[in-house]
Automatic annotation (TrEMBL), chain A:
<comment type="similarity">
    <text>Belongs to the Nre family.</text>
</comment>
<keyword id="KW-0227">DNA damage</keyword>
<dbReference type="InterPro" id="IPR006978">
    <property type="entry name" value="Nre_N"/>
</dbReference>
<dbReference type="InterPro" id="IPR033167">
    <property type="entry name" value="Nre"/>
</dbReference>
<feature type="domain" description="Archaeal Nre C-terminal">
    <location>
        <begin position="281"/>
        <end position="388"/>
    </location>
</feature>
<dbReference type="GO" id="GO:0006281">
    <property type="term" value="P:DNA repair"/>
</dbReference>
<dbReference type="Pfam" id="PF04895">
    <property type="entry name" value="Nre_C"/>
</dbReference>
<comment type="function">
    <text>Involved in DNA damage repair.</text>
</comment>
<keyword id="KW-0234">DNA repair</keyword>
<dbReference type="Pfam" id="PF04894">
    <property type="entry name" value="Nre_N"/>
</dbReference>
<dbReference type="InterPro" id="IPR006979">
    <property type="entry name" value="Nre_C"/>
</dbReference>
<feature type="domain" description="Archaeal Nre N-terminal">
    <location>
        <begin position="30"/>
        <end position="270"/>
    </location>
</feature>
<protein>
    <recommendedName>
        <fullName>DNA repair protein</fullName>
    </recommendedName>
</protein>
Length: 389, 251
């Protein structure tokens, strides 16, 4: 196996960290205060620590103006890892501890207005204690700015997205249907997910920790797209799509077969390579995927393509995580990378075998190694009853 | 006065229970078709690996009338909940009139109304296969064999000769073989025109055999090498319940 990289992960983190510290030497005072005034992109966050009593609140940078970009992954394709890390470090998170059933009251209703606003919202937060800027970056979890316990919060009026407002006031609409309605009316997934997390959908509303709400949103939408795809004719060729993003190499292989989805991941761990995978057939997946939210984010990107082209295929997604991906930044990077891959001209392969060879040629893991790590070949041994009609 | 389009009554609830539990192993929504001749269902599971074909002739009903061909779709879990309210000995009568509601009358005095769902339009064909091997055994016998194999394997292989049938499975932990000889109590019938071997997924076989275990007395399995398996469940008062399962093939 060839493992080569210009920089190790820790070198990359060190570089990002020292640039950030240099920035703080000039602007650190903005993050060292018992209050913050700025424009929320808009952004809200629900923690998972202490569930069902969780930290909930808005996120905002100490800057006024149009800050939309700071929490809008749909606009981040093409940005560097350092830019994205900086976006996150700039956001100060105010929190109040609330139990998840608590979706009423002034504070939470203000957050609902923040979440459904189509533009940045001026906000003023007072904290119980002074916050301090975050100065270190680890490679384990997505970076965050400072966190402060909210004493009081004030928000200026937002401009509510009309379609979100409609499902928000509809208490008879199931959360799942709310998500689909908004997706179909063109609302960005990152926005739907924020509204989902602060308990704005469904009959019995609840706060949902941000990381779960991201997975749930991708799961609901991709499941619905796949149910459409199951009605379409099979693709007529084997197509390979690729895209590299923030030190992740992605390849998507589509081939003529009833819906099967398998995603394989490989990551560099010193001189070793670690593997993970999960898969489903047309009956769907009945357990939390071994590779967590990455699975649904990739499935969504591929299902969007198939639904738009009105074709059905079996899908193998390969993801090689290279050391250059030194700071994890969230599953949006997978969703957007797969969407970008599916917009490119595919390589038309002669067969599944040829397609997998083509896809793995540029990666550190060879075709047979990839395939031996998953379940796809085993699944393909199962014939379909329609082959005998 | 509501004009009845379709009405069918059975003396017991067993038939509906058997049919619903069979279908529920494959799909969540089912479209039935009723004609002058009787009620039928045909559908595949979402991954198109298994197919169920049910034909229930009008003669098997206590009372049957169908003015014109009608397709009706139900959510199986909702239908099942209602039918489960019937005791074994209670009659079940279903009616469909113009308002797209299914009326279910159970026994003397229980009356339910259930909303129908959009019925699927696709017509599923049946696999065209010449079966080289045919065996008959009791449904409980087959259920036990699947249990024996499941200990070591996810798949069941069936191998026939003119004198015996061998059920086997292989897994990481080892192998299992169950041999049934011709003219023994366990094997009610065997007829083989060509020795056959087929491998089938227990993930699909187990649920259907369990679901039908109570209702079906005996079972007829037919298959050919590397071709689908067809299981016929013999249920009193139902014309035909066929379960088709596509094979697993090493390639």
């Amino acid at each position: 196996m060839k493992i080569s990289s210009n920089f190790s992960s820790s070198e990359i983190r060190k570089r990002i960290q020292s640039n950030w510290q240099e920035y703080l030497s000039k602007y650190g005072n903005l993050f060292t205060s018992d209050s913050i005034s700025g424009s929320s992109p808009p952004s809200v966050f629900v923690g998972s620590y202490g569930y069902p009593k969780v930290g909930v609140g808005p996120m905002l940078p100490p800057i006024h103006g149009d800050t939309t970009l700071l929490d809008n992954p749909e606009q981040w394709l093409g940005k560097s890892l350092e830019e994205i890390v900086n976006f996150r470090l700039n956001l100060v998170r105010g929190v109040q501890k609330l139990t998840v059933e608590n979706t009423q009251g002034r504070f939470i209703e203000n957050l609902h207005e923040v979440a459904m606003s189509s533009r940045s919202i001026d906000s003023d937060l007072q904290f119980h204690k002074t916050t301090f800027p975050v100065t270190t970056i680890d490679g384990e979890s997505p970076p965050f700015g400072p966190i402060g316990d909210i004493k009081s919060a004030k928000f200026s009026g937002g401009r509510a997205e009309k379609s979100i407002e409609r499902v928000y006031y509809d208490h008879d609409l199931k959360a799942q249907d709310a998500v689909l309605t908004l997706y179909n009316s063109g609302i960005e997934i990152s926005k739907i997910q924020k509204c989902f997390s602060v308990g704005m959908f469904g009959k019995k509303r609840k706060l949902v920790p941000t990381k779960w709400s991201i997975t749930a949103t991708d799961d609901i939408i991709s499941k619905s797209l796949v149910s459409e795809v199951l009605e379409f004719d099979l693709i007529d060729s084997c197509r390979v799509f690729s895209h590299d993003h923030l030190g992740n190499m992605f390849s998507v292989i589509l081939f003529p077969h009833r819906w099967i989805f398998e995603m394989l991941e490989a990551w560099h761990d010193g001189n070793n390579i670690g593997f993970g995978f999960d898969s489903e057939d047309a009956r769907g997946i009945d357990h939390p995927p071994a590779i967590a939210g990455a699975y649904f984010a990739a499935k969504l990107g591929v299902a969007e393509y198939l639904a738009e082209k009105k074709i059905q295929a079996a899908v193998l997604v390969l993801r090689e995580i290279r050391p250059e991906y030194a700071v994890p930044v969230g599953v949006w990077q997978i969703r957007e990378a797969i969407r970008a891959a599916m917009k490119k001209e595919p390589y038309i392969a002669e067969s599944f075998d040829d397609g997998t060879s083509f896809a793995s040629k540029r990666m550190s893991v060879g075709k047979s190694e990839w395939l031996s790590r998953g379940r796809l070949l085993k699944m393909l041994k199962q014939k379909s009853i329609s082959e005998f009609f | 006065m509501i004009k009845l389009e379709f009405s069918a009554k059975t003396n017991t609830s067993n038939e509906w229970k058997a049919i619903i539990s069979a279908i529920s192993t494959l799909v969540e929504e089912a479209t039935f078709e009723a004609t002058v001749e009787g009620v039928s269902f045909r559908g595949m599971d979402p991954s198109h690996v298994a197919l169920i074909d049910i034909s229930w002739p009008n003669s098997a009903f206590e009372k049957y009338s169908c003015d014109s061909d009608i397709k009706f779709g139900v959510r199986i879990d909702e239908f099942s909940k209602i039918i489960k309210r019937a005791e074994k000995s209670e009659s079940v009568e279903i009616n469909i009139s113009e308002d797209s509601m299914l009326r279910v009358s159970i026994g003397k005095n229980k009356k339910y109304k259930m909303r129908l769902i959009e019925s699927s339009v696709s017509d599923t064909p049946l696999p065209k296969i010449t079966y080289d091997s045919k065996i008959a055994l009791s449904s409980t016998g087959l259920d036990k064999i699947l249990g024996d194999i499941e200990v070591v394997s996810d798949y069941l292989s069936i191998k026939t000769t003119s004198k015996n049938v061998e059920f086997s499975g292989k897994g990481d932990s080892g192998e299992a073989i169950i041999n049934l000889e011709k003219d023994t109590e366990e094997l009610e019938e065997i007829s083989v025109t060509q020795e056959s071997t087929g491998t089938y997924s227990l993930e699909y076989l187990n649920p259907i055999v369990k679901a039908m275990g109570g209702a079906a007395g005996s079972i007829i399995c037919e298959f050919s090498s590397a071709k689908p398996l067809r299981i016929e469940f013999k249920v009193t008062n139902i014309g035909r319940i066929h379960f088709y399962l596509a094979p697993r093939v090493e390639s």
